Structures are given as C-alpha cells and as structure tokens.
Predict the structure.
Amino acid sequence: MSAADASLPPGSLEAALLVNRGGFVLDVSLAVRAGHPLALIGPNGAGKSTALLAIAGALALDGGHVRLGDRVLADTAEGIDRPAADRRVGVVFQGYALFPHLTVRENIAFGPRAQGRGRAAARRAAEEWIARMGLTELAERVPGQLSGGQAQKVALARSLAADPAALVLDEPLSALDVEVRAAVRADLSAHIRAFGGATIVVAHDRDDVAALADRVLALEGGRVVQRGTLAELAAAPATEFVRRFTSG
C-alpha cells in the first residue's frame, strides 16, 4: 500500500526516509503522534539534520514517503513531492537563522508571509505571537540586540505564526549559555506541549531530551539503532553511544 492509500490521526506524522547524499545513505522510518514529541539523538554525522530537512521538504527523497495526518507530503512511488512552503512544517534551525536586518516583528511576520498570507494577515499573526511569547518590549529590536534565549523565542514564534501542522527543531538550545539554558529549556518545553502537533527535536543533551520529548530515536550511520522512551534506552542501551548519552 502506498502512502497515498492511508491517513493518520490528525496532527500525526509518519515517514520512511531514504536519502543518498554523496555516499552517505539515510534509511530511517519514524512515526510521531500529535502531542507526543520525538527526539532524534546520535553522534555527529548520524543523519539527524538530514532527516529533518527531508521531512520539511528542503531535501528530496530518493525513496520513501512522508505523511502528515491525511496529507501526503512526499511519496516517491506516486511521484509526489510537495514544496516546503506547502508542507506546513515549521522549522527552527540550529542558530535560529533570523534575518539580521529585520526587526523581531518583521522576522515573525516572515513566517506567515512565506506561507502566502497577505501583509496585513501576516502582521496580525506576528502581533499575536509577540504577545503570546512575551516579546512586546523587543518587537522593534533586530537580532543583534537579542540574547540567545530571546532569539530562540523569536525563531519559534516565526515558525508557529505560520500555523504549522508539525514542528521540527534542530538543536534549538545548543547556542545558549549554560546559565540560561535550563530556564529557556523549560519555556520551550511549555510551548512545544501547548502546540500539540507532531514535533521532532534534534538534541545532543540528555536533559534537553528529558524535557522536550516523550520518545527517542537513536541514529548511527544513517540507520535507527534503538527507539523507545529515554528510560527504556537507559535500561538497555543498544550501542556505546546510547549508553553514554543516557547516562548523562
């Protein structure tokens, strides 16, 4: 049965990802229930960011499919490959990728504008998320005037303002100083839980995984080596990397 022949519960995501990037082959299947975030862990070069890019539509599949609820985002067997702007997958990049010349308000409005909304509608969405994220006093600042935690909030607000059906976050806390990381982690966790859709987070820190995700997918060399809760992985680690990661 092809991906086009079945649907998922609303907000849930399921994917079989086959990507060949210059000799590196990612061959991963995953499923994420709405409201139950999934963390991807693994050593550098394991394929975590590649998986996010394939789901978001920034990287074409060589085989497999991506389904989000009742929508088929990609299916190589059926010749389906929706462009990134049509997937409703919000992305928070490592380092946040804010536009340095735009204000906080303009950065957030860019999310809905990229989805095709008019200027007035995008501005209304930006104002809503500025208020919800507690960014009112920062709305006219540019990214160079923000702390790491503030920039992370703006990047998340930009994605959420576009009304995504799923979120993918690539090491959203890695750019933060240790002193603020715990507070920003708690705030990010609250926003992810409130979002309630399918969420995938790439993380390199055990505490980040514990706070942000319900389940874990461990990747090594482009393959899944273990999946389960963090406690399940810690109780019976399948590889040395998983043992070191889950032991803190």
